From TrEMBL, chain A:
The keyword Transmembrane belongs to this UniProt entry's keyword annotation: yes
Source organism (scientific name): Roseovarius albus
A single Gene Ontology CC term: plasma membrane
Alphabetical UniProt keywords: Cell membrane, Membrane, Transmembrane, Transmembrane helix
Chain segments annotated as coiled-coil in the UniProt record: none
Subcellular location: Cell membrane
Protein name: Galactoside transport system permease protein MglC
InterPro entries: ABC_transp_permease (IPR001851)
Name of the coding gene: mglC
Transmembrane region(s): 6-27, 39-59, 65-88, 95-113, 151-168, 198-217, 223-242, 249-269, 275-293
Chief subcellular location: membrane
TrEMBL record, chain B:
Protein name: Galactose/methyl galactoside import ATP-binding protein MglA
The entry's keywords: ATP-binding, Hydrolase, Nucleotide-binding, Repeat, Sugar transport, Transport
Entry-linked PROSITE patterns: ABC_TRANSPORTER_1, ABC_TRANSPORTER_2
Residue runs in coiled coils: none
The UniProt record lists the keyword Transport: yes
Domain of life from the UniProt record: Bacteria
Domain ABC transporter: 5-238, 259-503
Matching Pfam families: ABC_tran (PF00005)
EC number: 3.6.3.17
Length: 309, 508
């Protein structure tokens, strides 16, 4: 009896891990593309929050979560356009741009949220359901952990090899990585540095917006202020910990998500430690990770440095 | 011969500077045409205009007799113009092949480099260039990186090649190879615009255009002028092409030891023994020349002597005090100055302005601080004094150093280290990329420092300069000092032998 119970808990923790990974993975893999092009988008947290908020509004207003997903991506794209304008066109310091965007969106979403629910009970929506993959989902253990998930979770996991292919197996990816290492090498071939930086920021921001949208639609039924709760920052830490490689980023995101999943299961397990301590685990882990990784090997050389001729 | 690339009344301005003013220049098909001029004369700017990287404000460019309106290097590349830039534009993380291919759109959307590889291999064979196409460019020696740059231009089917000081970073042997490659290009019908400060190279060209302060002085055939006439055209006065130090008082000098290096060894990041039991000493008022092909441990030696690296074994003492293992700031506080050989990577912060770079590393000096804060007024006035003294061509001290011409950027480092050090001056290739007038000035300064009683370590690939200036010459090879010779009695052959590994290899 006890064994069965423990097994069930373990499967549930791992299935939870996979689900929790989803929004962070979208943001981290997207931001990886941006950073490989030399742009430090520090506004991941804000971009994600915007995606979540817009997804909430559209889901409750239209009742369609798929339209809400598209809206979240669009919202991410708009924030990305602003980020790209500041960093690539105006060549403002990347960190300052990101901090500005985070502050702006944190305030803006709260303000809009108040206007939206003014004078009525907070509307809710029906979120995503699991869509088991036929056949695969009946594999013992693995079926439940990996193949009984939301559709967007599958998409997030598939985006890792897809982005890897884009970065390492296409001409476009070679040029993009060149931007992060030495943009002048493209400039002297007469290729537009700015245009490629826009593309990279947009890809990153749209994926981050999507991550925010999933966070909203996959976990909850209502919006809360600052609902992203640092997941955007975790995405950035995952890139550093993963040494700017898709595989590494995936692994780092998995570690954070596992810790969070354990934390949410602690209550069920009836462990006699305040579960808030467990909730802080991913963040503590991220600090420990950063302290352990003293060298930033793998970091694109021109990351975060505006390009002037 | 017909004109293939031509600048007509070309004018290019930067904020506060006219880099090119009404320049008329023509490159004929199949010739090697040298651009010659002081640091900051506008050579690189003119080349970049011809390559479409800069757009001139006045005048125009003609290619094959027709007006070319280059909006970007892409247009120039289409017309068969290639350029090797003064400072490498390489991606250290990429392989040789990736560096050559990136941005050329030579592969389809999917990165398939088999065709490109074949073509590059063909080019390597054609020009007898020996390169591992899969090596990471950051792991290559400087000379090999230059071949990568040349392949990049050739890969794009350049008919016209602009080479901006390609030999500045090469060893004498590599330069010879470069000129064999250039000769072969000529045979294949390429036209070459070559920028160089080295008189031997200039005199080999078919024609020479002299630029001075952005204007063309004249275009001449080297056969019809002497080197002295050329330099006079360039700087407007006579320059001593080979500085010779007055040695009349040498006999009376007693060199009290300032720096003593004993059995120092150092292993680099990859475990290679970069310095192997190096012992040497330099006395007060003495110039110790350091000869050797670069890459034989010179860089590591300089970094150890300035406290940037910590030796694995052995000891260093300055004025009798042990200093190995101390932080590099301690070295500076004790009066050690370092001129590194890689100016943009190690000597300067390109985005910082000249004034800031002038005090870089010495910013805690009492002269520059006001309690906790930097005293910008004081820094500005000292820096501006140095800009005058070293004749750094710039609109103001507030210009970022990446807007300076290559030679002027080098002068910023020299000025900084010359004024701040007080005891030991470590100069690794200090004249690299400098024009002949400035080289004369730098050597005069070094001689003056010797008179003031500095101990000086001077590495140079110009053997003749070492012979003329040094009190003794140490020769390095494979991380070892293979011999220390007296410049008055040694021969170039003896030094050459020591550079090739010295007595051990002779015996073996
Ligand atoms: N990007 C830039 N912005 C501002 N000023 C510049 C820029 N590039 C060059 N200059 C200025 O234009 C002038 C000519 O510079 P250029 O680099 O063409 O000289 P150069 O002849 O190549 O010298 P060197 O032999 O030292 O390389 C210099 O005064 C330099 O400061
Ligand atoms: Mg130049």
């Amino acid at each position: 009896m006890g064994d069965l119970f423990q097994e069930a808990i373990l499967v549930s923790i791992l299935a939870g891990t996979v689900r929790i990974m989803t929004p962070i993975l979208f943001a981290a893999i997207g931001e990886l593309v941006t950073q490989r092009a030399g742009i430090w988008n520090m506004g991941v947290e804000g971009t994600m929050l915007m995606g979540a908020f817009i997804a909430y509004v559209v889901a409750t207003a239209t009742g369609s979560i798929w339209i809400a997903v598209l809206a979240a991506m669009l919202a991410g794209g708009v924030v990305g356009l602003l980020t790209a304008f500041m960093t690539a066109t105006m060549r403002v310091d990347h960190f300052i741009t990101g901090l500005g965007i985070n502050l702006l969106i944190s305030g803006l979403t709260l303000y809009w949220f108040r206007i939206y629910i003014k004078g009525r009970a907070q509307p809710t929506f029906e979120g995503f359901e699991n869509v088991p993959i036929p056949v695969l989902s009946s594999i013992p253990y693995l079926g439940e952990i990996l193949f009984t998930q939301r559709i967007l979770t599958y998409v997030a996991f598939l985006s890792v090899p897809a982005i890897w292919f884009l970065l390492y197996r296409t001409r476009w990816g070679l040029e993009l990585r060149c931007l992060g290492e030495n943009p002048k090498a493209l400039d002297i071939k007469g290729l537009s540095v700015v245009r490629r930086q826009y593309t990279a920021v947009l890809i990153g921001s749209i994926m981050t917006g999507l991550g925010g949208g999933f966070l909203m639609l996959g976990f909850s039924d209502r919006f809360l202020a600052d609902i992203t709760a640092g997941r955007g920052w975790l995405a950035i830490v995952a890139i550093i910990a993963g040494r700017w490689m898709p595989r590494g980023v995936l692994a780092a995101v998995a570690v954070f998500a596992l810790l969070e999943s354990v934390a949410t299961h602690v209550q069920v397990l009836g462990v006699d430690i305040p579960h808030q301590i467990f909730l802080a685990l991913p963040y503590v882990a991220s600090i420990v990770l950063l302290m352990m990784l003293r060298s930033k090997s793998g970091e694109p050389r021109r990351l975060g440095i505006p390009y002037f001729r | 011969m017909s004109d293939i690339l031509k600048a007509v009344n070309l004018t290019k301005r930067f904020p506060g500077v006219i880099a090119n003013e009404n320049v008329n220049f023509d490159l004929r098909a199949g010739e090697v045409h040298c651009l010659f001029g002081e640091n900051g004369a506008g050579k690189s700017t003119l080349s970049s205009c011809l390559f479409g990287f800069y757009q001139p404000e006045g005048g125009h460019i003609e290619i094959g007799g027709e007006i070319a309106n280059f909006k970007s290097p892409r247009d120039a590349i289409h017309m068969g113009v290639g350029m090797v830039h003064q400072h490498f534009v390489l991606v250290a993380e990429f392989s040789v092949l990736e560096n050559i291919v990136v941005g050329t759109h030579e592969s389809g959307w999917q990165l398939k480099l088999t065709d490109a590889r074949k073509r590059v291999e063909g080019l390597c064979a054609e020009y007898s260039i020996d390169l591992d196409l899969d090596a990471r460019v950051g792991d290559l020696a400087v000379g090999q990186q230059q071949w990568v740059e040349i392949l990049k231009a050739l890969f794009l089917d350049a008919k016209v090649l602009i080479l901006d000081e390609p030999s500045a970073v090469l060893t004498p042997e590599e330069s010879l190879r470069l000129f064999r490659i250039i000769d072969h290009m000529k045979e294949l019908g390429l036209s070459i615009l070559l920028i160089s400060h080295k008189m031997v190279e200039v005199m080999q060209a078919d024609r020479v255009t002299v630029l001075r302060k952005g204007k063309v002085v004249d275009t001449v055939c080297p056969a019809n002028v002497t080197p002295n006439e050329l330099t006079r055209m360039m700087v407007g006065r006579d320059v001593e092409l080979r500085m010779v130090r007055d040695r009349t008082e040498d006999a009376e000098r007693k060199f009290e030891t300032v720096l003593n290096v004993e059995k120092v060894s150092y292993r680099d990041g990859r475990g290679k023994l970069a310095l192997d039991n190096v012992s040497l000493h330099i006395g007060k008022g003495e110039i110790l020349g350091l000869a050797g092909v670069s890459g034989n441990g010179q860089k590591e030696l300089f970094e150890i002597l300035s406290g940037v690296l910590v030796p694995e074994n052995g000891c260093l003492s300055l004025d009798g005090e042990r200093i190995e293992g101390l932080p590099s700031r301690q070295y500076m506080d004790r009066g050690v100055g370092l001129v590194p050989d890689d100016r943009f990577r190690e000597g300067l912060i390109p985005e910082f302005n000249i004034r800031e770079n002038m005090i870089l590393g010495w910013q805690r000096h009492d002269d520059y601080t006001n309690g906790m804060f930097l005293d910008h007024k004081q820094i500005g006035s000292i820096a501006d004094g140095l800009i005058d003294e070293f004749q750094i061509a710039t609109p103001s001290g507030a210009t970022p150093v990446n807007h300076l011409s290559g030679g002027n950027a080098q002068k910023v480092i020299l000025a900084r280290e010359f004024v701040h050090s007080s005891k030991l001056l470590l100069a690794n290739q200090p004249t690299r990329g400098l024009d002949l007038g400035v080289i004369e000035y730098v050597y005069k300064q070094i001689i003056a420092k010797r008179e003031e009683g500095y101990a000086i370590l001077l590495a140079s690939e110009e053997l003749e300069d070492l012979l003329n200036l040094s009190d003794r010459i140490a020769v390095m090879s494979g991380g070892k000092i293979t011999g220390i010779v007296d410049p008055l009695t040694t021969t170039v052959e003896e030094i050459g032998l020591l550079m090739a590994g010295g007595k051990e290899e002779q015996a073996a």
